[in-house]
């Protein structure tokens, strides 16, 4: 075609991709906290401390469709496109959250980091016990990085009321975790 301009197609695809992904992050707040990188599919593997493969995590594509009626395009009606992009953001955001939860569940199950409440009702004590068993880390300034907690919105409704003794228990746990991590770092430097 005489008037074919591939750079326009590329620019439009980039616009749609970027917009739909940003809308997904806006509609699903958990995604906003996750750093993203663009790459070609892939997947990954979880390996234990002995170097033995524990879990294969294949790549799963996330797809969405956006259509724009020719009449709307020619008439410059962008509302239809914006509505489709908004819907696409919700759709791919939902797919990403579902994949995130599926991956986290598989990794925690594979590494033995699942805590069985044994039918016990969710409580502050159970949450504190879980936080004690989770691996924490330090940042480059030796500040404690608390692990993130992901729970279903229905479960979040059952969170116990925040009490001063709960805050004190969490602060004590944070202090102990930081001391343990700093001690481990010192031992590694000595060896």
Concise structural overview:
With 191 residues, the chain is mainly alpha-helical. The protein folds into 2 domains: 6-111, no CATH class; 124-190, no CATH class. It is built from 7 helices and 4 strands, in the order H-H-E-E-H-H-H-E-E-H-H.
Structural commentary:
By secondary structure, this protein is mainly alpha-helical. The protein folds into two domains: 6-111, no CATH class; 124-190, no CATH class. It has helices at residues 6-27, 29-32, 70-75, 79-111, 124-133, 153-156, 164-190; strands at residues 43-47, 53-58, 137-138, 144-145. A hairpin with a 5-residue loop joins strand 3 (137-138) and strand 4. The radius of gyration is 23 Å and the shape is elongated.
Query: Unreliable runs, pLDDT <50, ≥5 residues?
Result: none
Number of domains: 2
Overall structural class, as computed from helix and strand content, comes to mainly alpha
Largest sheet: 2 strands, antiparallel
* Content of β-strand: 5-15%
How do the SSEs run, as a string of H and E? HHEEHHHEEHH
Share in helix? 55-70%
What is the end-to-end distance?
A: 69 Å
Shape: elongated
The number of distinct β-strands equals: 4
Strand order of the largest sheet: 1-2
What would the average pLDDT be, to the nearest integer?
A: 84
Number of helices: 7
Radius of gyration: 23 Å
List descriptors.
2 domains, two-stranded antiparallel sheet, 4 strands
Q: What secondary-structure arrangement, pairings included, does this model have?
A:
Blueprint (H helix, E strand, L loop, with lengths): L5 H22 L1 H4 L10 E5 L5 E6 L11 H6 L3 H33 L12 H10 L3 E2 L5 E2 L7 H4 L7 H27 L1
Antiparallel strand pairs: 1-2, 3-4
Helix pairs in contact: 1-4, 5-7
């Amino acid at each position: 075609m005489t008037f074919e301009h591939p750079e326009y197609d590329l620019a439009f695809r980039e616009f749609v991709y970027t917009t739909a992904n940003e809308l997904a992050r806006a509609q699903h707040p958990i995604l906003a906290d996750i750093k993203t990188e663009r790459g070609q599919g892939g997947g990954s593997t979880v390996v234990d401390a002995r170097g033995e493969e524990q879990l294969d995590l294949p790549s799963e594509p996330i797809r969405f469709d956006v259509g724009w009626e020719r009449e709307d395009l020619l008439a410059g009606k962008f509302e239809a496109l914006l509505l489709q992009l908004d819907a696409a953001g919700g759709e791919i955001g939902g797919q990403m959250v579902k994949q995130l939860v599926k991956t986290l569940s598989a990794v925690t199950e594979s590494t033995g980091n699942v805590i069985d409440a044994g039918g016990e009702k969710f409580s502050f004590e159970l949450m504190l016990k879980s936080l004690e068993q989770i691996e924490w880390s330090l940042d480059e300034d030796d500040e404690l990085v608390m692990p993130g907690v992901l729970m279903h919105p229905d479960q979040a409704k059952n969170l116990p009321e925040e009490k001063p003794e709960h805050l004190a228990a969490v602060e004590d746990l944070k202090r102990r975790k930081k001391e343990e991590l700093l001690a481990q770092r010192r031992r590694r430097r000595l060896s």
